[in-house]
Amino acid sequence: MNRRTFFGAASAPLVFSSRAAPAPRRPNFVFVYTDDQRYDAIGALGAQPWLRTPNMDRLLREGAHFRNAFVTTSLCSPSRSSFLTGCYAHTTGVLDNRRDSAIRPGIPRVLPLLGEAGYATAYIGKIHIPNFEDALRGVDHVATFPGQGSYFNNAFVVNGKPTPTQGYITDHINRFALEFLRNRDQSKPFAMFVGHKAVHGPFQPDPRHKPPFENEWMPLPRTWDDRYEGRPSYLKARRKSWHGLEGLLEKYHYSQWQRDIAACLVAVDEGVGQILKELRGSGQLEDTVFIYSSDNGYFQGQHGLNDKRAMYEDSIRVPHIVHYPRRIQPGTVFGQMVLNIDLAPTLLDLAGADIPRAMEGRSWKPVLEGKDPAGREAWLYEYNWEKAYPFDPTQYGVRTSRYKFIRYPDTGNSDPDYPMKGELPYEELYDLKNDPLEMRNLARDPAAAPVLREMRARLKKLLEETGYPGGYR
Fold it and tell me: Containing H/E element for 254?
């Protein structure tokens, strides 16, 4: 498959294959998602040609690529709670990664709902939600662990039982996933979530995956030397912190950093291949919707930053691939914007189950069927300041297919650690069509005033519609 196929501007009008007969049963679901994987960190996409991801490449080649997929909060726990519930972080209550940040009672959870609809259900691997026992209550099979976990000799909890392991964490996550597929209730369709620790830092690949990358030298990103003209003041301070290049490169040579990330991803790709092989061997592949994504994007030197949180494209975009041989034409590419909060309602929709009104996402089944060619017009992003990681201020914003508007509402915050002082509520506006690298803030450009007014109105409306605490300020 060539780069034009993957990056083509037009969306495919129809995914359902004319050669395929109607599915005889409700589909199975496999959702595999990584931690901190960039939207372009798949070898076949060509942006990082040193990557070795043959099984992810196969998913792209045989399935559908949503090239405009995003998370509504670019942070592990909030994003994972949104995948599970179909709700924004301010609705779930998981606002950050703290131990007391938990899914509120009464919030819908997709796996128990699928269980009620007759599915055998499983959650395997990293969940990183503090009250994970409650979040996964009602799931048939659980093999997870609290917090970040450890790349080596990780302590799992399997159906409530402490289960220590020896060796590499990704290998065990892959093993637990295969065990569920082989030992599940064969009389039911199944839904399995597989959450990976990789490729979260500190990046510790299995030694067996390091040699292929030892002689690779990676180019610096084009926005490496961003000087933040017209941008909020916190970015310069962040650049000098562990969230930025100056702090990062005290630990890593740039290419070594990239080598370690690439080697961590190999183990994930191996697991994708193992699951595909198991599904094929058991005759389940044609009837399984296999979705691959990540809990957030990642800065790898773009704008002089590393990590995530900020509402720039490298942080909020994620990979999103859907493989469903019975229904999806190979090599399909969609341009519609889809979000992490869309996963839960989509699975319920594909399963023929009711979607709770409390879910704030929208199913992308109509996109697959060619019934939603335009997709959503705009969506809300939110990030709440974390005092333990003080470099990124509270921010919310709205993104459309062309424009992005970011507003920092708490620049008058009296906390001495707050990263923005003495600035009126700061705003950023980017024309993504003409400035895809987000280098020119148009918020104070008189020529962009009509767009700015429109984006402010969109943001106010989204905050009101979703019940954001405090609203627009």
Answer: helix 254-281
Give the type of residue at 122: A
Q: Check if the beta carbon of residue 274 is closer than 8 Å to that of residue 178.
A: yes
The answer to whether 145 and 154 have CB atoms below 8 angstroms apart is: yes
Distances (CA, A) of 73 to 96, 129, 337, 405: 9, 14, 15, 15
- Residue-level length of the chain: 473
The helix/strand/coil state of 81 is: helix
User: ∠ at Cα 341 (124, 155), nearest 5°?
Assistant: 20
Q: How confident is the model at residue 424 (pLDDT cuts 50, 70, 90)?
A: confident
Dump the DSSP string for 101-150. --PPTT---HHHHHHHTT-EEEEEE----TTHHHHTTT-SEEEE-STT--
Q: What single letter denotes the amino acid at residue 452?
A: L
Beta-carbon contacts of residue 382 (< 8 Å; ≥ 6 apart): 72, 73, 88, 89, 90, 395, 396, 468
Which of 311-315, 361-365, 369-373, 411-415 is the least confident region?
Answer: 411-415
Q: Which domains does the chain have, with CATH numbers?
A: 24-373 (3.40.720.10), 380-465 (3.30.1120.10)
| Residue 25: band (very low, low, confident or very high) from pLDDT cuts 50, 70, 90 | confident
Q: Which residue has the higher pLDDT, 129 or 291?
A: 291
DSSP line for 144-187 = E-STT--SBS-EEEETTEEEE--SBHHHHHHHHHHHHHHHS-TT
Structure tokens at 279: 């599904």
Residue 430: in which H helix or E strand, if any?
strand 426-431
The DSSP call for residue 324 is -
Distance CA 352, CA 47 (A): 37
Return the bridge partners of 16, or none.
328
62, 223 Cβ separation under 8 angstroms: no
User: What is the structure's pLDDT at 131?
Assistant: 81
* Bond prior to 390 in cis (omega within 30° of 0): no
- Could you tell me which residues are beta bridge partners of residue 37? none
At 412 the pLDDT is 83
Percent of the chain scoring above 90 in pLDDT? 85
pLDDT in tens, 425-442: 899 999 999 999 999 999
Confidence bin at 251 (pLDDT 50/70/90): low
Predicted TM-score (pTM) of the model is 0.93
Q: What is the pLDDT of residues 258-280, one digit of tens each?
A: 999 999 999 999 999 999 999 99
